[in-house]
Structure prediction request, 521 residues.
Amino acid sequence: MKMIIAIIQPGKLDDVRDELYKAEVNLMTVSEVLGHGRQKGVTEIYRGAKEMGNLLRKVRLEIAVNDNFVETTVKAIIRGAKTGETGDGKIFILPLEQSIRIRTEERGSISIG
Amino acid sequence: MNAGDTAWVLVSTALVMLMTPGLAFFYGGMVRRKNVLSVLMQCFFILCLVSVLWVVYGYSLAFAPGTGFWGGLSWSMLNGVGLDPYNDYSATIPHQAFMIFQAMFAVITPALIIGAFAERMKFSSFVVFIVLWLTFVYAPICHWVWGMGGFLRNIGALDFAGGTVVHINAGIAALVTALMIGPRKNADKHIPSPHNLPFVALGTALLWFGWFGFNAGSALAANGLAANAFVVTNVAAAAAGLSWAFIEWFRNGKPTLFGVASGAVAGLVAITPAAGFVNVSGALIIGLLVSVFCYLAAAVIKPKLGYDDALDAFGVHCIGGIWGALATGLFATKLVNAAGNDGFFYGNPAQFMIQVKAVAVTLIYSTIVTFILFKVVDLVMGMRVTIKEEDVGLDLTQHHERAYTMLE
Prediction:
């Protein structure tokens, strides 16, 4: 089992979700986050006071998958989120020790899908 | 000169002024968080821009006694527009009071169009487009309907407070701009949800409040006609808010706040041309039916045809405005306003045809000229922001500001 964490552009969320559904990955947690990577961030000006390098809005997806779904999921995210420009985001894959479905108390692979 | 009339028109002017910020919140609540400031900014910028243009040359183009087409420049810089009444427009209030009352109409009309192209227009191009539109679309049509020697005024078209000049005009321009700028990215896949419906409710309240000045103030006197306009305005707004809610209840199982707000605004639009000519029963029918037409336009026809009139400026203002202008030809009665005329149901079917003509002229002229102006600005400056700017949002890309922080 793996935990896939993807940080993407907020405007790309629709495209990524479309691609994930097509790849039959239907379960995910989405949150709004702030951050920046190699991008410089954005400039904001309030009454003449300029603030450089402010953090950008990003969307973070967390998707727990079984090992045989890792590549499918990663490819789907890339298809949805890639523009080829700086700021497209990152995907992190972490080992997942355990997964438990609260309703049934099932554990392991079966509880993920 | 009459002190009561002057006081009422000045207060009404302030009421109409408040409608544009009201519209800003009405529209601002409907867009996504990343674009709310851009909509507020467009509304407030128009308030400043048109207020200046109006005294420099706008009022002259619209109201100076020029040709049948427009008024010319003889009153530019308010030359000759003084503190004494100008009898052809309003015999009991200062000419400048009439001028500033009209200024607020000129402000809100282009602001209405914003609803169609929200979330994707470049701000610099927007400014140029609005200047051109006020000059070549609003001023002439305003002159035809209300100005001395205007040809629609001369054929007897009834438009009490601006159904043709303001709502049909802005509404059809909205459709033209929505079609020309193209849909928002992904609008075909899913329509973005309004980011702040309480703002929409607040905006509706301010619009409704201001509309008493818009309609009852258009009597240009503190008299019975103003009271009639005030009453029918409230009746039509209320009836339309109810009927929109019941349509939703019937069709979707639940009535919505957004629906009541949309209905109330549609009712206010529809009663605008009729306010000084119809009685309460006319206003009830106008209000109850306008939501049917506007609901069809916004919730049924728009998704089928696929144009992205983002905030339904066409669906509410053009459709509601057309219904109001035609309904004036049906329900007008001289019992309300002897200076008006009787409509179809009061034994004068010819009035209906005059209304049809005024509507058609406005639709045709506004469509053609809006198309040309949009095309010119698009070719010279480009109307639309880049895809990337659209993704990030207009607040940050056009104004370097954002409305809401996530972290302090």
Q: What stands out?
A: The mean pLDDT of chain B is 96. The CA atoms of residues 131 and 328 of chain B lie 31 Å apart.
